[in-house]
Design a protein that fits this description.
The complex is a heterodimer. Chain A is mainly beta. Chain A is built from 3 helices and 11 strands; from the N terminus they run βββαββαββββββα. Helices cover 10% and strands 30% of the residues of chain A. Chain B is an alpha/beta fold. Chain B has 2 domains: 103 residues, Elongation Factor Tu (Ef-tu), domain 3; 116 residues, Rossmann fold, CATH 3.40.50. Helices cover 21% and strands 31% of the residues of chain B. In chain B, the strands form 2 sheets. Chain B has a 6-stranded antiparallel beta sheet, sandwiched between helices. In chain B, α5 crosses α6. Chain B is globular, with a radius of gyration of 18 Å. The chains are: A mainly beta, B alpha/beta.
Chain lengths: 206, 247
């Protein structure tokens, strides 16, 4: 580990915002777009989300169903998001429905240990079930009170904000519960299997 | 170039690379060449992470595509200066040959060309960097015909590696001036991209969010299969105004 000659860093460690995980910087009001595949074009009226695999009641919801289920007071996440490419966006908000509510309806079987999120683009990302339960994951359709834009995963995406944001699939269409781990797109392409920003689990081998 | 599990583990290790050459692209960017000990050879399109480390342990890191060919003895990166950029500003203003920088890589197995199947590279601004690595590799292996390139920048002076790209026959679009010989389109629009679409090739699109969004939509409209388009984006979200999007 070489000290970089002449580098002191613009933001001193002491003044560093404690909400920033190691190696991250605050992107401010901006919100970078990082997607490896073409941006999906989805008609919100035709979009649906299915939860299947190791569940008692495989279920499919339209956006209208989800909004009805969420009721007048949709669940809102307000907090920080962290991208593996080193930007973090602090104190931002997403509105939708807690994944707990949907899993409660689908009824995970006891042997379910992992989930795979899948997008309409066939993008996939994998997580342990415990990383998406207990108020840790949401299906969302608004950002800062406005409909989620297409490039940020609209009309509907998933968010799992305690992990690097590639674990938050844009254009989510299916969640499958499994009894084993099944690496997704980035996980097969050199990135870490879990992606905890506080442990800097960025790449394979971290 | 088959990547093994061992290569992957080796690529994940942080190394102290030595800067062997520093060249400036005006005020826009700095081009660094690095000597990387026990280097794992990259595939064109892959990137490296550069990490700066202060004495108190504070670090800042950013990813940069390799511009060099896999066969090059060194790793070349093109560092665009970002306004108020903590890392790019330091690399451009302070770093000199002989300095050491922490680096790891190569990373990314998606935006990577295998070097033996047809590829179409479309880059905007500094997004040409990984495409230049592809170009150098195609030349190295004697298969330049496998790779078609279309690139876009505001002016000739803004386009990184302009001479090398032009010499290789890349389609160069300059949005704020005409090409050097008065040739070339003024921008990569639906018609231009449609004409170079090749359903049998893998399309590698690299540039700003706004640029890539426009390019992928032109490719899709022209019949490039969705599964054959690989995109590398950087920068903040662009407004979705595809009709006028161009870099």
């Amino acid at each position: 580990m070489a000290i970089t000659r002449g580098f002191t860093g613009r933001r001193r460690q002491a003044e560093r915002d404690p909400r920033l995980p190691p190696g991250q910087y605050d992107v401010g009001k901006s919100w970078p777009v990082l997607t490896a595949e073409p941006t999906a074009r989805i008609d919100a009226d035709r979009w649906s989300l299915s939860i299947g695999g190791l569940v008692a009641n495989p279920t499919t919801w339209s956006l209208r169903d989800l909004k009805k289920l969420a009721g007048g007071d949709s669940d809102t996440y307000r907090g920080d998001i962290h991208c593996v490419t080193t930007w973090s966006k602090l104190d931002t908000s997403f509105t939708g429905i807690s994944l707990d509510t949907l899993l409660e309806a689908a009824g995970p079987l006891p042997e379910a240990t992992h989930v795979v999120e899948e997008s309409t683009t066939r993008y996939r990302t994998n997580l342990p079930l415990e990383d998406v339960t207990g108020g840790t994951a949401w299906i969302v359709w608004e950002h800062e009170g406005k409909p989620l834009t297409r490039e940020h995963g609209g009309p509907v995406r998933m968010i799992v904000p305690h992990l690097y944001f590639w674990k938050s699939a844009k254009w989510i269409s299916r969640i499958t519960l499994l009894d084993h781990d099944e690496p997704g797109f980035w996980e097969l392409n050199g990135y870490h299997d879990r992606g905890d920003p506080w442990l800097e689990q960025r790449f394979d081998g971290d | 170039m088959t990547e093994t599990g061992q290569d992957r583990r080796l690529a994940a290790v942080w190394r102290d690379a030595t800067v062997v050459d520093v060249r400036h692209h005006g005020d826009l960017a700095v081009i660094l060449r690095l000597e990387v000990p026990d280097r794992v050879v990259h595939r064109p399109g892959q990137h490296y992470v550069i990490r700066l480390r202060a004495e108190d342990g504070y670090t800042a890191s950013r990813s940069y595509s390799a511009v060099s060919a896999p066969s090059d003895d060194h790793v070349e990166i093109y560092v665009e200066r970002v306004p108020d950029g903590e890392v790019s500003g330091f690399l451009a203003e302070v770093v000199e040959p002989g300095d050491e920088l922490e680096c790891r890589g190569p990373i990314g197995r998606w935006f990577a060309w295998d070097g033996h199947t047809p590829a179409l590279g479309i880059g905007g601004g500094s997004g040409v960097a990984p495409l230049v690595s592809m170009l150098r590799h195609a030349r190295d292996v004697g298969r330049p015909e496998l790779l078609s390139l279309a690139v876009s920048a505001r002016t000739a002076a803004d386009l990184p590696y302009r001479e090398e790209l032009e010499a290789a026959g890349a389609l160069v679009a300059l949005t704020r001036e005409r090409g050097a010989r008065g040739l070339g389109p003024s921008r990569l629009d639906g018609a231009v991209v449609g004409a170079i679409t090749d359903p049998g090739a893998t399309a590698f699109v690299c540039g700003s969010a706004r640029f890539t969004l426009a390019m992928e939509s032109y490719l899709l409209s022209a019949g490039q299969p969705e599964g054959s388009i690989r995109v590398e984006r950087f920068g903040p979200s662009g407004e979705i105004e595809e009709e006028e999007a161009s870099e």
